[in-house]
Amino acid sequence: MNHSRWDPANIRYLFYGVTPAETTYSNIDLIPNFTDLATPSMLLLVIIEYLFLDERKYAFNDTITSINAGMFSVLSKYAGKSISAALYVSLHPQINILHLDPSSTTTWLLCFLAKDLAYYLAHRFIHEGGVFWSFHQMHHSSEYYNLSTALRQGALQDLSTWIFDIMWCPFIPPNVFIVHQYFNVLYQFWIHTEVIPPLGPLEYFLNTPSAHRVHHGRNPYCIDRNYGGTLIIWDRLFGTYAAERPDEQIAYGLVTPVASFDHLYCQFFEFKAIGFDKPRMKDANGKEVFVGWKEKLRAIFGPPGYFPGTKTHWFFFWKCVDDSEEGIPEVKGPISKYDRPCRLWLRVYLLIHFLLLIAAFIKFNELRSASTTWEDLFVYCSFFIISFQMYGYFFDCRWFALPFESFRLLSIFAYGLYISEAALTSFALASFVCLCSLAQAGQILIFDEKKTVIVNGNGNCTSEVGDKKSN
Ligand SMILES: [Zn+2]
Ligand SMILES: [Zn+2]
């Protein structure tokens, strides 16, 4: 099997297009990082969709935020491996009871089903398990639905779902399980698109773009529906399936939109909202909504839509609401999407830095190995996270975006001096000059919260705030 990142045939990894024989490995260390191998295909498909799709279906700020989230989720894994994979490998020798042949096709097929069921349960849990929703909501925070949305992943999601993979550890060999772990996730890339219509009979057993569009909707009928990974049979079996309604436009995103591109805020705001604010919630008369410690625990660990009086029932080891449409507002068109203006030359500046950021990320992944020093890891991870934040601040038109970017460029300059890399210091200096010119030319806009207007660097009002509308 070819393991070059630039092999065009790698595109088939995005469709589970592999045979058991070619993905059977005698040793775990021989399993390639399939996510890494499929990354160029994913980026190419995002670019093609971006160029050819109606501009209302894509947005510059949203797409960059989604791709940044994809990079962040890879950064949070050690050498590309998830926490559950590492745990699986270390636990299997101690708790293996079935001793299945790892090279048999039957084991491979059995594992395909087992991993997909584990995904269904894990996915359902992080939707319905109260504060555990915070690990996953990032994936649903985009108000657009396109291939870049697939990359928008919760950075720490693995921390909340590993138990569902470990459930199979006593039965299935790790070298088969890890292969399916890769393909189960990669398969879900192509289903994030509005381009592909319902696929007829395939809708009965496969997770398709149509089925997953429903999963990303905030219309009442879409809530808590279609959790499947590769197959949709689990949703049909456990009663969570809903077909896309051709007569009702889907509004994508969170029930209460996050209305920000601030990366760390988007990743983590829900932990505070559910884990801290919700149990302390007060009604219009100033009385506590969740009275007593039992109700407060229900506020944190009950379904995200739970309030005193909401009817719930057990599923596996968590509770879900009886009526998932209860309390969900109807969607009325035209649908507004959060947006702040970003002027042309600032876009050009951000795009150039974004392409370089992707190049640096690919390089970092190549260099990254168990022997990478902590110092290098710290420098690279800080650089990427600071860069993700910079994009969020410009897209939100925050007043401190300009000083923050100046600080980022100064840090790159200082690091270039430290490692005696003239190209890096020159690049940082040239970028700083460009940034100052952009500020001077009124290209950098600031959102004034008190006046709800956008002003440029000179304090002149440039436009009223208005969200994008689509129908
Ligand atoms: Zn989900
Ligand atoms: Zn999705």
Automatic annotation (TrEMBL):
It is found in: Endomembrane system. GO terms for cellular component: endoplasmic reticulum; membrane. Its main location: membrane. GO terms for molecular function: glyceryl-ether monooxygenase activity; iron ion binding. Coiled coil: none annotated. The keyword Transferase does not apply. GO terms for biological process: lipid biosynthetic process; membrane lipid metabolic process. Residues 108-240 form the Fatty acid hydroxylase domain. Keywords: Lipid metabolism, Membrane, Oxidoreductase, Transmembrane, Transmembrane helix. The chain crosses the membrane at residues 344-365, 377-395, 415-441. It is a multi-pass membrane protein. This is Fatty acid hydroxylase domain-containing protein. It comes from Diploscapter pachys.
